[in-house]
Design brief:
By secondary structure, this protein is of the alpha+beta class. The protein is built from three helices and eight strands; from the N terminus they run βββββαβααββ.
């Protein structure tokens, strides 16, 4: 990409070795020799980066297409047959019960009430893995908490 086309406050894909990542340009400096240096923030990790080679910029990312890792509110995924995903069904069961529950109990209630359909042999493990993954990834923004070992509750 040409250096004069790169602007501050815009999001770009850049090459990092063989990989591609997304950055937001914070500042552009011109060195004494005329070379441009770009101060950026990695959109995925939030860490600052300094890029001295404009050729690493591949393309601009449009604002309607948010970079991966940005926080957005997730809508409940209702399937065409009207069923919820296993994770959304587990949250609904926990909110309705208002108490911490074991995963086996959550899965049994969700399936019995027709909130979701989990065809696997061990639906409780599927739901447990999804809830634990959400807790790890979202932290305090997660819909679930683990008050005790083996128990989950709605936040």
């Amino acid at each position: 990409m040409k250096p004069n086309r790169i602007e501050t406050k815009k999001v770009y894909e850049i090459a990092v070795g063989k990989n591609v990542t997304t950055v937001k340009v914070v500042n552009i400096e011109r060195r004494v020799n005329g070379q441009l240096v770009f101060d950026c923030i990695n959109a995925k990790t939030g860490k600052p980066m300094r890029i001295a080679d404009a050729a690493r910029f591949l393309k601009e990312v449009k604002t309607e297409k948010m970079p991966k890792g940005t926080k957005t509110e997730r809508a409940k995924s209702v399937k065409p047959d009207g069923l919820l995903s296993g994770l959304d069904a587990a949250h609904k069961v926990l909110v309705e019960s208002g108490r911490p529950m074991k995963v086996k109990e959550i899965a049994d209630i969700a399936i019995a009430n027709g909130y979701c359909k989990l065809a696997g042999a061990t639906p409780e493990f599927t739901i447990s893995a999804a809830m634990q993954r959400e807790i790890l990834q979202k932290g305090a923004a997660s819909r679930f908490v683990k008050p005790e070992r083996g128990l989950f509750a709605a936040r």
